[in-house]
Amino acid sequence: MENFHFQIPTHLYFGKGEERGIGAYLRPYAKKVLLHYGGGSIKKSGLYAIVTASLRDAGIAFVTLGGVVPNPRLSLVREGIALCRREGVELILAVGGGSAIDSAKAIALGVCYEGDVWALFNDDIVTGKALPVATVLTIPAAGSETSASCVVTNEEAQLKYGHTDNAVRPVLSVINPAYFCTLPKNQIANGVADMMSHIFERYFTQTKHTDVTDELCEGVLRAILKNAVKVYDNPQDVDAWYEIGFGGSLAHNDLLGRGREEDWACHGMEHELSAIYDIPHGAGLAVLTPNWMETVAPENQAIFGQFAHNVMGVQPSRDVEADIREGIARLRAFYRRIGLATTLTALGIDGARLEEMAKKATGAAFGDEYGQGHFKTLLWQDVLAIYRKAL
Amino acid sequence: MENFHFQIPTHLYFGKGEERGIGAYLRPYAKKVLLHYGGGSIKKSGLYAIVTASLRDAGIAFVTLGGVVPNPRLSLVREGIALCRREGVELILAVGGGSAIDSAKAIALGVCYEGDVWALFNDDIVTGKALPVATVLTIPAAGSETSASCVVTNEEAQLKYGHTDNAVRPVLSVINPAYFCTLPKNQIANGVADMMSHIFERYFTQTKHTDVTDELCEGVLRAILKNAVKVYDNPQDVDAWYEIGFGGSLAHNDLLGRGREEDWACHGMEHELSAIYDIPHGAGLAVLTPNWMETVAPENQAIFGQFAHNVMGVQPSRDVEADIREGIARLRAFYRRIGLATTLTALGIDGARLEEMAKKATGAAFGDEYGQGHFKTLLWQDVLAIYRKAL
User: Fold this and answer.
1) d(CA B258, nearest CA chain A) in Å
2) Residue B147's pLDDT is what?
3) Has the ipTM of the complex gone over 0.90?
4) What are phi and psi of B95, to 5 degrees?
5) CA nearest to A77, candidates A7, A9, A168
6) Per-residue pLDDT tens over the stretch A281-293
7) How much is the pLDDT for A235?
8) In a 3-state reduction of DSSP, which class is residue A94?
9) How far away is chain A from the Cα of B227, in angstroms, using its nearest Cα?
10) CA angle B200, B203, B206 (to 5 degrees)
C-alpha cells in the first residue's frame, strides 16, 4: 500500500424524497444559484418543479441554463460563465447526469478564472478556485456527484479533456434512485459500464499489499453486476436502483483507489472516441475495456486472476491464463447481456482515424508522448493496437 | 436500504512518516494545542519527540497531559478541561489509541460546556460544540480516529457511557502503521476484536436490500481476519498492519452502516463489563459476540447464513442452521487463535453482578427500560441470559 490522504467532503443525501430538501441543504452556501440541466426530462419527471419550489421555499434566488448534451460542450460552458458573472451567481446546482454536473463544474471553475476556461483543461491548470457546486443526480454513471473531476468537449477542436481540481468536488449531492426508473435501457447500460470502469481504473494496479481496497473494489463490482441486470430487465426495480446509485457514487469518490497506483488508460483512450464520434462514454468503455485487459493482463496475472475468480465468478483452476481469458469473456458477455456493443464497428467507428486518436491519447500528436495509463504505460502504437483489436 | 446522509470529513493521512507532518497539518486549525496521551510508550517509541518537534517547527505552542489509562476516566477528563481553559488551548491532539482519543474528545466537549462534562454522557446532551480534535494513532482498535463517538468511565459511579456528537469527529488523523509493530500481542488481539465488532454492529441488520454495504462489511471483515493472524504471529509485518490500520478506520467511519439499521447491543452489554471489572473492551466483545449471535440468529437466518458463508468461509449446505453454527464456531476459533478468551470466567468475571449489569445495560436499573440493540431489542432478562451463557 502506498501513502495516501483521504477525505470524503461531499455531503450525500440519499433516498426517497431527498430532492425536496435541496433548498434547505443549499441555504448555508448561497443566496443565488444557477440551475443547470440538460433537456426536458427533468421537467417531464416533475423534478424541475420540485427543485425550483424547494429553492423558492428556502428563499434562494436562481437563474436557469438548460441545454447540456452528452459529452458536454465548451460553448455552453462559456455561456454559463458569462451568465453567472452577469447575475452574481454564488453556486452552481446541476440537476441531471454526469454531463450536466461536469458542465456545471467547468462553469464553476471558469467564473473564478480570469483567462479562457479551456486553458484550464488544455494546460491542466489547477487553480483551486471555483464557485461551489451541488448536484441532484438523475443518471447513475459518471460518479461526478462525488468526484473532483469533470470532462468537457471542445467541439470545434474535437478534443475531450478531463480536469481534476478539488475545488469542484460537490459540496453536496442528492440521490433519489426513484428518478432512475424512467431511464431508457441504453442509458442504463452506458451508466453501468462507466461506473464499473471507474472501479477497474483503480482496481488494476501494480501496487502490492492492497487487501482492503481489493475487497472494496471487488465487492462494489459484484453488487453492480448483480443489480445492473435487475434494473436493465426491470427499470422499475427501485431497490436495485438504490444499489446502483450508491455503488456508482462509491466507484468514484476516491475511496476505492486509496493507497493504490491507479491506471486510467481506458478512460484516456475512450475520450478520443467520444470527442470525434460523439458516442456515449460508457459505450466506448465497454468496447475498449476487455481489449485493454487482454493486452495488459500478462503484466500482472495475479490481479487479473483475482478479478476472474472474485468478480466474474470463475472457478480457480491450475491454468491462471485460462481463468483470466474466461473472466474477460464473462465480462464481455455481461456487457452484451445489458445490450452493449463490444466492437467499435458496432458503434459506427471504422479504422480511418485510429492513428490520429492513438497519437492524441498519448500526447504523441502534440510532440510530447507521455503515454496512457500506469498499470502498463501504453505508447501510441500500443493504443493503436488496442483500437484495431477492438474494431 | 434506508435513507441516509453521508460524509467523511476527517482528513486521514496514512502511511510511512506521516506523523512528521502533524505540525503542518494542524497549522490551519490552532496556534496552541493540548497534547494528550497515555503512558510512556510514545516516548519510548520516539513518537513523542517527533510530534513535539513537528509542532515546534510549525510554530504551534502546546501543553501536555499524559496518564490516560484504558477505559479512560472522568477524573482525568475534568483535569484536562481545567487545563485547557487555563491555558487557552484551541485544539486537542491525542497521540495514542482509542482511550487517549476518547479522553481527548471528552475534554474537547467539556471545555465548550458550562455544566459538568459528565452530564453530556449521563443525559446524552448533544451540544454540537467542542474544540477541534486531531489524532496520531498508535493502536488500531477503537476507530475513534474517524468516529464521532467517545466512551468515558465514571470510575466512582462504575458507569461507562458512550456519547456521540459530530463536533468531536477528528478534523484530521495520522496513521503510520509502523508504530503498531511494537504492540504486545494481547493489545493486538483486543484491537482486532474491537474493530470487527464495529463492523458486526452494522452488518447484522433487519434492513433489506443492502447489497453494497453487505459487500463492504464482508470485504473489510475478510481483510481483517486474514491480516490479524499475520500481525499476531509476526508483529513486524508492517504490510499486514497497513491493512489492519486502514480496515480499523473504515470499520468505524460510518460508511459501512449507511442505509442500514445498526445494532450495537454487544457494545452496550460490554460497556457494563469493563465499567465494573476494568477489562479491555475488545476482550469483553470477543466473549459476548458469539453468545449474542447464537441468541439472535433465529431472528434473521439469511444474514447469519451470509456471514457464515461469505465471511467465515463455510461451504453452503442445505442446512442453514448448521452453517450458522459452524460460522459462529469458526469465529470463536479465530478469537482463540489470536489468544482471546471466549468465556467471562476466563476474564475473571463470575456470576455475582450479572443481574446488576443487565439492568444497567437496558436502562431497567434506572426505571426506564429502553433495552439494548435494534437487530433484536434485548430486555434485561435477555441480556442476563447472554451474560450467563457467556460464563
Assistant:
1) 9
2) 94
3) yes
4) -120, 105
5) A168
6) 999 999 999 999 9
7) 97
8) strand
9) 9
10) 125
Domain B188-389: CATH superfamily is: Dehydroquinate synthase-like - alpha domain (1.20.1090.10)
Report pLDDT digits (tens) over A328-382: 999 999 999 999 999 999 999 999 999 999 999 999 999 999 999 999 999 999 9
CATH 1.10.275.10 fits A189-390, yes or no: no
Interface test with A, best of B215, B217, B230 (most A CBs within 10 A): B215
pLDDT at A187: 96
Query: SS3 helix, strand, coil % of chain B, rounded to 5?
Result: 55, 15, 30
Q: Is A1 in contact with B246 (Cβ distance < 8 A)?
A: yes
CB-CB under 8 Å, B242 with A259: yes
Global confidence as pTM: 0.96
Q: How many angstroms separate the CA atoms of A163 and B137, rounded? A: 34
User: Which residues of chain A are within 8 Å of residue B259 when distances are taken between CB atoms?
Assistant: 14-15, 242, 246
Residue A379 has a pLDDT of 98
Q: What are phi and psi of B192, to 5 degrees?
A: -60, -45
Distance CA B120, CA B123 (A): 6
Cβ proximity of B267 and B164 under 8 Å: no
Residues in B closer than 8 angstroms to A220, CB to CB, are 212, 215-216
Q: Is it true that domain A11-178 has CATH number 3.30.70.100?
A: no
Q: How far is CA B294 from CA B267, B288, B321, B375, in A?
A: 16, 10, 10, 13
Asked if A11's CB is within 8 angstroms of B5's CB, the reply is yes
Lowest mean pLDDT among A105-109, A154-158, A338-342, B28-32: A154-158
Record: contact B1-A15, CB cut-off 8 A: yes
Are B215 and A212 a contacting pair at CB < 8 A?
no
Q: How confident is the model at residue A268 (pLDDT cuts 50, 70, 90)?
A: very high
Q: Which residues of chain B have pLDDT under 70?
A: none
- What pLDDT score was predicted for residue A169? 97
* Residue of chain B whose Cα is closest to the Cα of A256: B216
For testing contact with chain B, the best of A146, A211, A244 (most B CBs within 10 A): A211
- The tens digit of pLDDT for each residue in A70-81 reads 989 999 999 999
Q: What are the chain A neighbours of B10 within 8 Å (beta carbons)? A: 7
What residue segments make up the domains of chain B, in order of their start?
A: 11-178, 188-389
> How remote is the C-alpha of B241 from its chain's centroid?
17
- Closest C-alpha to A148, from A9, A2, A4, A3: A9
Distance CA A151, CA A164 (A): 9
- Whole-number pLDDT of residue A156: 93
DSSP calls for B191-232: HHHHHHHHHHHHHS-S-S--HHHHHHHHHHHHHHHHHHHHHH
How does the average pLDDT of chain A come out, rounded? 97
Q: From B191, B85, B91, B88, select the one nearest B138 (Cα to Cα).
A: B191
| Chain B contact set for A211 (CB, 8 A) | 223, 226-227, 243
Q: Does residue B208 belong to the interface with chain A, where contact is any CB pair within 8 Å?
A: yes
Distance from first CA to last CA of chain A, Å, rounded? 37
pLDDT digits (tens, 9 = 90+) for A214-236: 999 999 999 999 999 999 999 99
**Residues of chain B contacting A216 with CB distance shorter than 8 Å:** 216, 219-220
